[in-house]
Design brief:
Radius of gyration: 23 Å
Strand order of the largest sheet: 6-5-4-7-11
Number of strands: 16
Largest sheet: 5 strands, mixed
Oligomer: single chain
CATH superfamily of the largest domain: ATPase, nucleotide binding domain
CATH class of the largest domain: Alpha Beta
CATH topology of the largest domain: Nucleotidyltransferase, domain 5
Distance between the termini: 29 Å
Helix content: 25-40%
Strand content: 15-25%
Number of domains: 3
Number of helices: 14
Length: about 375
């Protein structure tokens, strides 16, 4: 890095298992007393006192008297100090890097973006130049906070060891060590993750995970993405990167996807397939559907039905009652009544069935800064020592 890109190195290391459990609970569920934490985490009062003292000493947690006075001695409440850690999160697309810097609560302090180098003749974005661009982006964002403790990078593709890009879908990368060179240039811990997996991590601590231990994430945009959280643990890498779900057949007489499957989920939901079939940009399809154009409405309704069936199938496979729908294109598709109708039809019980199933679907439209925030939360979790 150049002198202008230098980042203040992290001041502290990862938390112990007990410290992490306390910190995570306070982050996810809010302030609590030592006694409540002792009961909830099944830790002895003496151990809880030691953990609290250590976290307070390190500046990660603060302990203050209960703001509303009660009878007798006021209770002491533990809460996370948001500024105790800061992490830069970066989301890579085919052409740009979008960055944010977040505190412990995942709240964004600043945003920035930069262009990535143009791909070479073989369609591969140069790695060394990308690392330089990312290091400069980290340096710009680091100047907005007192110090930075780590970097999280997310992108579409297959990631190994939270460091190596085995398959970078939009960058043309194969077996690229991204974490190592970026760590050398910034002097900071770096974690690399699939972009939907990063969103699943963000949802685990600050979204659906607050009420559901198992849930699925589906993203709709430049492609279809899938994230899985099982019993409070994020599945870091799917066996097929979601291919089987994306190409599940819906209608043998339907349109073909880019791989030649007729009437599969991707044929109805992939932006490229929609644009090729409609012969116009996706945003124009949405605009025309809003104006009442019947052909455009049919395209959006077809995508919505496919999404409804996909959400129901994913929920059934995971045996969860909660699915998060996210992405740049999700708002227009999920707003169609056709999605809710498809889900309701799938949930309808048979005449002799007594068990009723419900499905809670959260819709979360995303900007690229939101994707970068997911990368930052993945970085926060790694800095703290969460798996």
């Amino acid at each position: 890095m150049t002198s202008s890109d230098t980042v203040t190195p992290p001041a502290a290391g990862r938390l112990s298992t007990g410290e992490l459990a306390v910190t995570r609970h306070l982050l996810v569920h809010g302030p609590a007393t030592r006694g409540d934490l002792s009961d909830l985490l099944r830790v002895s009062p003496a151990s809880m006192s030691r953990l609290a003292r250590s976290l307070v000493s390190d500046g990660i947690v603060a302990e203050n008297a209960e703001p509303v006075p009660g009878v007798g001695r006021p209770r002491q409440i533990l809460s996370v100090v948001p500024g105790a850690r800061h992490v830069v999160g970066c989301k890579l697309t085919a052409t740009r890097a979008y960055g944010v810097v977040c505190d412990m609560l995942g709240d964004v302090s600043a945003t920035a973006e930069t262009a990535l180098p143009a791909p070479d003749a073989g369609g591969t974005v140069p790695v060394a130049a990308t690392v330089r661009a990312l290091a400069q982006l980290v340096g710009r964002l680091a100047r907005r906070v007192p110090s930075v403790d780590g970097v999280g990078v997310s992108l579409g593709g297959v990631i190994a060891g939270r460091a190596v890009v085995r398959e970078g879908t939009f960058l043309g990368w194969r077996d690229v060590d991204l974490a190592g060179p970026l760590r050398q240039r910034t002097g900071l811990p770096v974690v690399v993750t699939n972009d939907v997996t990063a969103l699943a991590r963000e949802q685990l601590w600050f979204g659906a995970g607050r009420t559901h231990a198992t849930f699925g994430v589906i993203t709709v945009g430049a492609g279809l993405g899938f994230g899985v959280v099982r019993e409070g643990v994020v599945v870091e890498q799917l066996i097929d990167n979601g291919h089987l779900l994306a190409h599940a057949p819906l209608d043998g007489r339907g349109p073909r996807c880019g791989l030649g499957h007729r009437g599969c989920v991707a044929a109805y939901l992939n932006r490229d397939d929609i644009e090729r079939r409609a012969a116009m940009a996706f945003d124009e399809v949405v605009r025309r559907a809003g104006d009442g154009d019947r052909a455009a409405t049919a395209v959006i309704d077809g995508a919505a039905r496919a999404l409804g069936h996909l959400a129901a199938t994913f929920a059934g496979a995971l045996q969860t009652t909660h699915i998060v729908l996210a992405g740049e294109d999700i708002a227009a598709v999920a707003a169609s009544p056709a999605m809710a109708e498809a889900v309701a039809d799938r949930l309808r019980p048979g005449p002799r069935e007594t068990q009723r199933c419900s499905l809670d679907i959260t819709v979360a439209p995303l900007t690229f800064s939101d994707w970068a925030q997911g990368a930052a939360v993945a970085g926060i979790q790694a800095v703290l020592g969460a798996a």
